[in-house]
Design a protein that fits this description.
Blueprint (H helix, E strand, L loop, with lengths): L6 H11 L4 E7 L5 H10 L5 E4 L10 H12 L4 H7 L9 E4 L2 H5 L3 H11 L3 E3 L9 H9 L3 E3 L1 E2 L8 H7 L4 E4 L13 H13 L4 E4 L5 H7 L5 E4 L1 H10 L1 H15 L7
Helix pairs in contact: 2-12, 6-7, 10-12, 11-12
Amino acid sequence: MADSFGRIESEFRAKRAAGRKLLVPYITGGYPGWQDAIRACAANGADAIEIGIPFSDPVMDGPVIQQASQAALDDGITPNAILDEVPNLDVEIPLTVMTYYNLVHHPGPERFAASLQRAGIVGAILPDLPLEESGPWCAAADAHGIETIMLAAPTAPDDRLPKVAARSRGFLYSVGLLGVTGERSSLAQTATDLAARLKLVTEVPVLVGVGVSNAEQAYEATRVADGVIQGASMVRRLMESGPDAVGDYVAEVRAAIDGEGSTR
């Protein structure tokens, strides 16, 4: 692990040390109102934001995020169009992107990393890039100050987890359950089990994503993990009710994970 951390990891470690649980909403870039949704997240207690760059074959995304991504693609949204908007968002918290490796491979890791850096993005999540094949991207990302957030799966054997953690920058994405993103009635046991396993092998902040569907489940997950990533529940509110509803929901989750009475 490097001696000096990037912006996300530095901020997340400091907030964790201060006793704060971490909240990272996911917003689909290019969907109508996405810029205001990001501003609303930042204004209501998000610690970083994950901007989805739509791709035509989103293997990790469930129906809600797929629908939002397809709507953005139908509107002609491109990765560059989203990145061009990022400097205008004017938020103080770190911004990451989540997309698929095809969009990195096409321009090449060096050009893609440079485009993220120019836009002011400081992290990247590439769920279909295996650890064993991540070398070229990670080298380019490191050179441009982009923190590569790796994913750990609940099926990973114990000897694999430290390897994934050692390569992760920013935070470690603890995948809550097998399957695609989406809202579920209860938090999967695998979510807290994997987070607990990861906490034993790394000092990198561990955040649970996939299947954390409401404020109550976020609270439950953060009793074990350092924080949560929430996508489908954010994007559904954006599609149904607009950016203000996203901000209200972020405030609700923030209050829940901060603990009883602290912000209510």
